[in-house]
Amino acid sequence: MNVTSPNTLLSENDPAPVEWVNPSSVVPVLLLCEHAGQGIPESLGDLGLASGAIDTHIGLDIGAEALARAVAERLNCPLVLQRYSRLVIDCNRPPGTPGSIPSVSDGVGIPGNIGLSKADAERRVTEIFAPLNAAIRAGFERAPRRAGFSIHSYVPALLNGRQRPWHAGFLTRCDLTTASLMLDTIAARDPNLVLAVNEPYNICDDSDWFIPQFAEKYEIEHALIEVRHDLLKDRDGVEIWADHLSHAILKILECGR
Ligand SMILES: [Zn+2]
Fold first, then answer.
1. Domain presence at residue 9
2. CATH number, domain at 156?
3. What 3-state class would DSSP assign to 161?
4. Ligand 1 centroid vs 225 CA: distance in angstroms?
5. How many domains does the chain have?
6. pLDDT of 101-150, one tens digit each?
7. 200 neighbors 169 (Cβ within 8 angstroms)
8. What is the pLDDT of residues 125-134, one digit of tens each?
9. Which of 74, 127, 193, 254 could cross-link to 246 by cystine, CB 3.0-4.6 Å?
10. How far apart are CA 39 and CA 201, in angstroms?
């Protein structure tokens, strides 16, 4: 694919990268959904992807936006959403790392990301990653926040066919208290759920941004929440998980540190 090099990546036809929900809320919890959107800037065409690929889990976290919006509605707290696909630039990866602008995602090649010039990569950072980063910072500066949660979804099975048994996971390195309280609160609501701390992933400096760069530095109560995406495929599923998560977050706020 021939990626042109305009002076700017985004044009007037493209949406702003950041969307806020409840921006003026002073509720002390900030929600984030870095993988909400599946937008591709017009100047990048379709990134050379096969038809429909952008609608799959490589393009976005399926169901995560609906879940994050439903939790924000219940808690009346601020939520920051990224409107562009993580295949354009992954806003939960440090810029410059291999996962930031992936040339392959879950076995699928991303032609529009192969052989990218330094200038093209920098435009994705400055026009898409940086505004989300600034919005997160603004969210913490607008009102005191004592907790922050990043909401994601994941695929039920890996490429090798191995099934992931967990319905949801709560990821953290430094705040096992919050992740465990979240797990215990949801387990008490539905004892049949399979829940875990630090599954299906772990937090790493190389593959995460919000937890290392914000939650840990600000020393707030936090977790990166992962819900299996087949549980979010319809409105009922989203409502069930929004109830679980909002109850757990309220419990965390009640308990305090
Ligand atoms: Zn995600």
1. no
2. 3.40.630.40
3. coil
4. 9
5. 1
6. 999 999 999 999 999 999 999 999 999 999 999 999 999 999 999 999 99
7. yes
8. 999 999 999 9
9. 74
10. 25
